[in-house]
Write a structure and sequence with these properties.
By secondary structure, this protein is mostly helical. Helices cover about 90% and strands about 0% of the residues.
Amino acid sequence: MIRSLAQSRLLRLFSTSVLDQSMLSASSLMLGVLLLRYAPSEQYGYFVIVQASIMLLVAAQGAWVGGPLAILAPQRTDEQRRQMIGAIEASQRRAVRWLAAGALLVPAAGYLLGFWAEAPAIVATVAVTAAWATLRREMLRRVLLIYAQPNTVFAVDALYVAVLLLLTAATFVLPGPAAAWVVAAVAAGSLAGTVYGRRRFGRQHGWPESPAKPYWQQMRPLGIWTTAGAVIYWVHNQSYNYVLAVQTDLEAVAHANAARLMLMPTVLMLVGVSSLLMPLAAGWLHREGLPVVLRRLWSFALGLLVLNGAYVLLLWVFRDWVTGTLIRTTIPDRDALILLWAASAGVGTIRDMLQCGVLALGRLKPMATITGLSSVVSLMIMWFGIQRYGVPGAVLGILVGESLSLAGVIWLLRRSARHHRAGVQAAAAATATESATEKKT
């Protein structure tokens, strides 16, 4: 009965997470559709570059702070966990504030010195503000997921989406670059969600601000390798935007991301489930062992593959209506891009699910090495693939990199499983020897 209750609670957690990601996916899709329909392709290209840069910062923060925190916090008592999270959150909040203040000087100096035109300077200034607000919201979401509070995460994200879409709808009647107004809407929505979530969470658990240095010292060995892996993975997964911009133009960036936008529900669902699964995997490993963790991770991977496959099939049937009527955009090599993005999403789904087990085991250095090697191969294929195949060549590089990274993750987990079995057998043999000795005595 207790096991059944635990499983039903787990089902509720992931049901809420899936609903939350569906909402975020829908809002992201609407945002892209609005920009593609009512703004020049160049503005959508600007927005994609800003979004990719913010994603890099979010990935780095998640790896340096969120990942180690999700691994270490479940191993502590309730009070120890509360003290640790409160100290780290306060320290992170101060650091992000000062970094944002310094970053705001860059576009101002670039414009005043004549290096930047007015439009890029405006977009960059708003982007810094949006990055600051997004990092605050993402840190809050990490903490709430560690405490297994998906309902509060959903409320935070719902407020974010409401403010984002409301302000985005007004951007197309305002003067100036549309990309800057949309990025400003991202900042406002993130800030609104963060303020609400902190107040609601604070009433339940409080936010003690104890000295953070001892906790950073504990997290640093994990954070160094998770951050290296996350940044390298971002290079592999997002740098195609910059490679396309360098080799072609912002319109090519817009075309590649317009095709990816149609598959955004699969990407965001994966992000939501993996962020909730990471602290759960660490807890399962601590309580139930590696075999249980691997079975559950494979179950989640296969379940997501089925859902994503059903969505891709539906998209393929209605792809003409989506591009011709919904977003009103002509995408060169559309069908090839859809298939390549879908294959990359499928491989990435399995990789991200299984990687939760690697991170829970603390195998961060080999994971960073594997990610680095796959990223180098990915970038090489991407660079030369664009020259030979155009925009699909960039996505081909991503697919190859994802496949190599998945192979590395499976290899790491198989090695860990063999070591686990050897350890269990050695412990059983030692127990049997000890029992036989006691009987003879």
